[in-house]
DNA sequence: ATGCTAACGCAACGATGAGTGCGATAATTT
DNA sequence: AAATTATCGCACTCATCGTTGCGTTAGCAT
């Protein structure tokens, strides 16, 4: 949760923003998609609907903002010394994060809100994966293409989360790393 | 488009159903997500809103119905004689289908409508992939696990379609088959 | 400590989505 | 061919979303 560091004491705007973000996450997790409306968010956040309308404008923009905040900086890029170790550790963390039903609900709502929704959920993950590969390249090791890594790691992981009902265990996610590095 | 075979002459219900389905696809492709409302769908379909409310109840159920219809039976399972040939041909067809922006818009809306939305988009694809593998097994050939095939074929394909902005070309999709069969 | 500015709350309004009872129509069955 | 039944259209009502103007408050700077 990034809200604690964003809600700096003394800033009302930051406080309101944090409350609204939290309300969006809770509502997305609780009810069906059509209940995620601006008046409902405002009521749950203890804020007047006008404020939300003025600062975010629409549910789509609000969801994009919440998603980019929620899906950035919540997973730390490890530095275990080896590419395999970094990837396994990182994939396990991402899979654990994706195991939370509330996170999935937020992702689904964001995807449904517009064409850019999906990118908002995974843009930071792309950067993190690129950073891991770049670091190994700096070490002098042989590295896979970033595109290929995205396909074989993030692809199955997010596919299971969204399309297949079955849960993506942390162990299984780490197993994908072996398949990538073997090819 | 499956509408032509569903709109059998003489059946008013089927005609209405086809018109509503078509309207949903068009509206999902055209405007933002919040414009996909039941009165709008009814108006575009030339049908009274009451009819849509009574037959489908909510936008989520309507989207699930449209998605299962649209994503079933639109790709024929090939029979080229070999597993690699079948998979390459089938992946190319699926990728071509996913290249249509309208199809993507419908998928996004369906995913956002509820937890079951994603499954409605890929359930038929799972069955088709299972059928291809089963047939090869009947031929006596060595086959990969269905789970593994889903991870390495459908995973990257649908991830690119939803999360990554980049288009999934038909050639690239066929290339995934080689990676699967090599492992 | 005091003035300034940006953000928020409030109260109203219009627009539109959601739901209901009833009559009419088309498709099916005997 | 006539009766039956499921389905649809229509008129009406209620709830609520989206928006605007104005006053107030909190945060910030001198």
Automatic annotation (TrEMBL), chains A, B:
* Signal peptide limits: none
SUPFAM superfamilies per the UniProt record, alphabetical: Homeodomain-like, Tetracyclin repressor-like, C-terminal domain
InterPro entries noted in UniProt: Homeodomain-like_sf, HTH_TetR, Tet_transcr_reg_TetR-rel_C_sf, TetR_C
Keyword set for this entry? DNA-binding, Transcription, Transcription regulation
The entry's DNA-binding region feature spans 37-56
Could you tell me which residue ranges the HTH tetR-type domain spans?
14-74
Q: What's an example of a GO molecular-function annotation for this chain?
A: DNA binding
Top-level taxon in the UniProt lineage = Bacteria
| KW Transcription regulation (keyword) present | yes
Pfam family, any one: TetR_C_11
**Identification of the protein by name:** Transcriptional regulator, TetR family
Which species expresses this protein natively? Answer: Actinacidiphila cocklensis
